Request: fold
Amino acid sequence: MSVLDNFDSWKDFLGDRLHQAEGQGMNQNAVSEIAYEIGGYLAKQVDAKNDQEAILRDLWNVADKEEQHAIANMMVKLVQDQGTPR
Reply:
């Protein structure tokens, strides 16, 4: 099963990657920019595997650039307490 098949698995996966990036010294601005780039890629290139992903894709597609950055930042906040406990 892919991490994209289940939204909780997806959040755990993102949380683990966020903790890894922070552990390697990546600053918040870099994390935010990467989240924005990933959001754009997912919205354009990856089919939604569940209702939550479909909603995020639809919101991303109607948002302007500033709103997309806000969505990306909210996703970072959403997953910061997810993943393997530190």
User: Anything to note?
Assistant: The chain has four helices and no strands. The chain has a mean pLDDT of 87.
